[in-house]
Design brief:
little secondary structure, two-stranded antiparallel sheet, 4 strands
């Protein structure tokens, strides 16, 4: 089993750990309501993103007639 050749001093250990830190997330104000939000995301309070309302967007989908309806699974009964 591998073991350290020499003891790591407190200074060297702490210097290595200087990069193990949590950074604060940058917050910006919503242009519509002024709430603090994460950048490049829709506002959870008013639903606006880049001046457009994203919460009320309705996406219409086309139903193609070419697709066959799903077939119901036939139940297999054992006959005696």
């Amino acid at each position: 089993m591998a073991v350290p050749f020499r003891k790591v001093s407190k200074t060297r250990r702490d210097m290595r750990r200087t990069h193990y830190k949590i950074t604060a997330n940058g917050l910006v104000e919503c242009t519509n309501c002024g709430a603090k939000i994460r950048p490049h995301r829709a506002c959870p309070k008013c639903g606006f993103y880049k001046g457009a309302d994203t919460s009320k967007k309705v996406v219409e989908t086309k139903v193609t007639e070419e697709k066959a309806p799903k077939k119901a699974k036939a139940s297999k009964k054992t006959e005696e």
